[in-house]
Structure prediction request, 725 residues.
Amino acid sequence: MDLLRIATAGSVDDGKSTLIGRLLFDSKAIFADQLDSVEKTSLERGSEYTDLALLTDGLRAEREQGITIDVAYRYFATPNRKFIVADTPGHIQYTRNMVTGASTSDLSIILVDARKGLVEQSRRHAFLVSLLKVPHLVVAVNKMDLVDWSQEVFDEIRREFTDYAARLNIADVQVIPVSALTGDNVVTRSQNMPWYQGASLMHHLENVQIASDSNMVDVRFPVQYVIRPHSNDYHDYRGYAGQVASGVMKAGDKVVVLPSGLPATIKEVSTADGPVDVAYPPMSVTVRLDDDVDISRGDMIVRPNNQPKVAQNFEAMICWMSDKPMKPGQKLAIKHTTKTARALVKELRYGLNINTLHRNEEANHLDLNEIGRVSLRTTKPLLADEYQKNRTTGGFILIDEITNNTVAAGMIIEAE
Amino acid sequence: MKLKNAAATGMRYQLDQLSALEAESIFIIREVVAELERPGLLFSGGKDSAVLLHLAAKAFAPAAIPFPVVHIDTGHNFQEVLDFRDAEVSRRGVRLIVGSVQEAIDAGDVVEERNGSRNRIQTPVLLDTIEKHELNALMGGARRDEEKARAKERVFSFRDDFGQWDPKNQRPELWGLYNSRLNHGESIRVFPLSNWTELDIWHYIERENVILPSIYYAHEREVFERSGMLFGVHPFCTPRDDEMVRTQMVRYRTVGDASLTAAVASTATTTAQIVEEVATTRITERGATRGDDQVSEAAMEDRKKEGYF
Ligand SMILES: Nc1nc2c(ncn2[C@@H]2O[C@H](COP(=O)(O)OP(=O)(O)OP(=O)(O)O)[C@@H](O)[C@H]2O)c(=O)[nH]1
Ligand SMILES: [Mg+2]
Prediction:
């Protein structure tokens, strides 16, 4: 059984929570007592039908306002796959929570209200999905029940989306007409839309190929922790613990430790259960080397002929997540793989208009939820790749050193 | 290990979902130890904390677990669970810190609630224990599938000076880049099992032969029915006159206070049988077994805001 991480996206009230509720309900992942409670609450509110959005909108404020504020994680499984679903908020004020949900996902579902067509939030989220390099995208054109199951409406939205997406970098896009409320094309194929020949949403989720999404080529092993048992049995033991970010590692491999550049050979790759033949993402393992090199947290084990940049100057896209605007000259903490340093925002190259993808080079600050390209200098060298090549070694967060809040998500475009 | 990871799909480098969850949890536990000076692991003796302790041992092997285990003892525990706690602590060679609710009541620090439930008053005891031992990060075995407020919580979840959770103002949590920076007086709760479901936990217990308190397996017990649930007869949980006591095969799906936690009718005496049972059950574990969560729609959210784990 493999694992697929999904995140929803789309504008307020497009039906994201209802769709997830429907997926859970129709795949029998809802327990009787959960359903009772949702039915009771729906009734108390005088709702004509069971409001499946209540299955994920778990906070008091969310239920009171009928909107999603923060990501909810839900789980279900079919015989071959386990699904982790992040139901994210559509409200623009909570965009950072949408980014949180999308950052770790394999697949995004962007909902579009068939009556309204693409709105700014749909474009913004499609752009974020491409920026965050989520490998698979489904556009669910929802509320088809309210447009008489019209093929024209669907075709028009699909055309409009395809035009917009052509300017983005998304590898795999599927557009599916659904009704989250009635369940059409969610788990079972719709009787109301015989003109649609494609798979239901669930069928697609169960069958989308994810095996080739991981990078198995570039060996990147950020050292997370050094294991040194204080016991006589393991007197000289030094194990470098971490999670394989990309590539395949095994005993006997010639490696280089960065940033020192010292060469070594892998003596053993193991877990607590003993040595393993090969380690690949996302395994958490312990690596031991033949040679006695000095290694600490934040260092990286890589192959000699395939190395990341050891760099202190970066070009990056950032998504700003704080109420306090970002201004060039600002100093922040940066966390990148297992390394933390300080960073100076040297320049704001441009701010981006999500609707038109126009670059505003006159921009002198980024407000909450705005996206722009910056150049950064860090106090220590980071071991980095372009985000487009490696989601782990290309991503970083910026932290306000006074409030300690996470204020930006960053994606490296260029390192030197 | 080779066998465990070989995916059913036949893909060469595809980790099966249970191993992927294990890898994620181990990464999180190591991150806590690498970034925070004084972590601890909250150990209730339940199945989730048993799995968490098992993962902690795997994360640092062959070295010892580099942090203490914390138990908030409500004084209403099942004896089997206390015995299990002590056996685990000595087997793993970890230090045990106990925060005692009974001592806090005796000292007049907290007042027992009228209904005898110690669920609410364990929160101040937990906070005192954290403070006294200067722990700044506590790992716990809570899972997002347990409850709708938990489904909303980050893996690294911050508590202010008063131990309170602010659900509307959580830090964004991107990729595996956990921001563990603390403001003065703040502490962190970390949930390495966030993405596990009850069924995952049982599959893992089966795969790894994780040892559990005996009450998780079906056994004969004197029980009586109350609000549609089966309660075991216990010094802290006695039947009223109109409640009939009978002996039957039951097991516990969760482990909490003996006064609040109900058993379920079951004949599952092995882990494999429990996996089968959990896979087909139609009621959540909390719905089936907790008297305390049914008070109001947002009972859990309210308790968490007050500093409950
Ligand atoms: N007729 C119809 N109504 C729908 C459908 N899907 C959702 N709705 C309704 O649309 C409203 C909003 O649905 P939600 O699921 O809460 O929307 P959301 O996208 O999760 O909203 P936010 O999370 O706040 O951004 C609710 O009243 C739903 O019942 C649909 O397919 N058809
Ligand atoms: Mg919603």
Summary: The two ends of chain B are 34 Å apart (CA to CA). The pocket of magnesium ion (ligand 2) is lined by residues A 16-17, 53, 68, 87 (CB under 6 Å). Chain B touches chain A through 70 residues (CB under 8 Å). Residues 212-294 of chain B form one domain.
